[in-house]
Amino acid sequence: MAHAAQVGLQDATSPIMEELITFHDHALMIIFLICFLVLYALFLTLTTKLTNTNISDAQEMETVWTILPAIILVLIALPSLRILYMTDEVNDPSLTIKSIGHQWYWTYEYTDYGGLIFNSYMLPPLFLEPGDLRLLDVDNRVVLPIEAPIRMMITSQDVLHSWAIPTLGLKTDAIPGRLNQTTFTATRPGVYYGQCSEICGANHSFMPIVLELIPLKIFEMGPVFTL
């Protein structure tokens, strides 16, 4: 999860998030180079007194500064499209979870385990245990296995919500009357936090999401579903 004074993105817990971080660094380096070039040109323009009459009609220079931005856009667009198509892939998921947004809590349904359904509310400050996180911990966590493709079916019962887990690279809108889906494969165990990322009313800030990712062997033992 994020910590105080953090500058970069959260550590990746899924292959998609690893790709997103790599693309972020790739695009940021291109932005740095463009900014440096523009600032350098401005500096030369403001400090030099030399003039060249040939610059007023330089078709070669105009050709270069027209083609170069197009090449830069292609270098950014190609990896971006690759990641976009990767996020839409659904390859034989091992488990399907349905998440329903409400004002202001989440309902989860394990469709592959006899229709297990439970609500997940934010823990009030009076019920927090030592080590719990204020405004982030919930009474019932979503327990899922690692190294297994998981499909999330996301919808809403009242207004627009958004189911988001930054460390997994997930952000999917929950829309009333529509069922959206997203997939992910977690690569390491742990507890990961997210929040509703769509302004949904007065208590928008108080509907966190908590995933507890555990090894598959432990997940299949069953006691994790005792709520």
List the helices and strands and how they pair.
Layout: H1 15-47, H2 59-87, E1 95-102, E2 105-110, E3 116-120, E4 142-145, E5 150-156, E6 161-165, E7 170-174, E8 180-184, E9 190-196, E10 208-214, H3 216-219
Parallel strand pairs: 1-5, 4-10
Antiparallel strand pairs: 1-2, 2-3, 5-8, 6-7, 6-9, 9-10
Domain Cytochrome oxidase subunit II transmembrane region profile: 1-91
Transmembrane segments: 27-46, 66-85
Pfam family, one: COX2_TM
General description of the model:
With 227 residues, the chain is of the alpha+beta class. The chain folds into two domains: 15-88, Helix Hairpins (Orthogonal Bundle); 95-221, Cupredoxins -  blue copper proteins (Immunoglobulin-like). It is 29% helix and 26% strand. The chain is built from three helices and ten strands, in the order ααββββββββββα. It has helices at 15-47, 59-87, 216-219, and strands at residues 95-102, 105-110, 116-120, 142-145, 150-156, 161-165, 170-174, 180-184, 190-196, 208-214. A five-stranded mixed β-sheet has the order 3-2-1-5-8, with no helix packed on it. A five-stranded mixed β-sheet has the order 4-10-9-6-7. Helix 1 runs antiparallel to helix 2. The longest helix has 33 residues, at 15-47. The mean pLDDT is 87.
